[in-house]
Design goal:
- The complex is a heterodimer of chains A (10) and B (212).
- With 10 residues, chain A is mostly helical.
- Chain A is 40% helix and 0% strand.
- Chain A is elongated, with a radius of gyration of 6 Å.
- The termini of chain A are far apart.
- Chain B is mainly α and 212 residues long.
- Chain B is globular and about 45 Å long.
- The chains are: A mainly alpha (10), B mainly alpha (212).
Chain lengths: 10, 212
């Protein structure tokens, strides 16, 4: 879930 | 990562690098709004604070550095480089963009996903990016002309936004729980702002006459 929370888009 | 997002990031990077290269090469920023460039510098500065805390990928970090470096370089050239600064159209570039900064900050304090320092600033950067092009579009209408670079710059920025919407549609259908309402709504608003510019840009290109 943490991966989803951190913003992976620029 | 999907092709829409990669194409979007490349288009976005190309738009800022083309602008920086033109200003550096011909030592002129005629037709360019420094206020829009300042807003973009603030957008990147407040969005990429996590560059030090959370590592996503080499690509992600590299692109953040490119966007930060290019946007601040463009502002530096337009504000402090003597030759370039002389060509800056101060009388026409009068959009009071600090109001945009203030209202986006207030909105971010009201509507956000998590009330943490980084998250509120990240949300602020989304709202600000959606309206950052306004001073440039106003300057464009005032100066009535569009030298090919400013048009290309806005065209590429609009292309990047359009590709990102395709990216979100793709991710929505391929990734469970991929729902980011704030990102989607601000992205849509921003893309709509470009819509009328695209209409006139296409008309001028079709009729092969200057864009008015």
């Amino acid at each position: 879930l943490d991966a989803l929370l951190t913003h992976d888009e620029l | 990562m999907n092709i829409f997002r990669l194409a979007g990031d490349m288009t976005h990077m190309f738009s800022v690098l083309v602008l920086l290269l033109k200003i550096h090469t011909i030592k002129s920023c005629a037709g360019v709004s420094v206020k829009t460039q300042e807003l973009y510098a603030i957008v990147f500065a407040t969005r990429y604070l996590d560059i030090f805390t959370s590592f996503v990928s080499i690509y992600n970090t590299f692109m953040k550095l490119v966007f930060l470096g290019s946007s601040f370089s463009i502002v530096w050239y337009m504000r402090y480089h003597k030759a370039v600064h002389r060509t800056y159209d101060r009388e026409q570039d009068t959009f009071r963009h600090w109001f945009l900064v203030l209202s986006c900050l207030l909105l971010a304090l009201l509507i956000h996903e998590k009330f943490t320092f980084l998250e509120v600033l990240w949300t602020f950067s989304l709202y600000l990016e959606a309206v950052a092009i306004l001073p440039q579009l106003v300057l464009l209408q005032r100066t009535r002309n569009i030298d090919n670079l400013t048009g290309q710059y806005i065209f590429l920025l609009g292309g990047y936004r359009g590709l990102y919407i395709l990216n979100w549609i793709y991710r929505y259908f391929t990734e469970p729980h991929f729902v980011h309402w704030i990102t989607w709504i601000t992205g849509l608003v921003q893309t709509l702002l470009y819509a009328d510019f695209f209409y006139y840009y296409f008309l001028s290109w079709k009729n092969n006459k200057k864009l008015n």
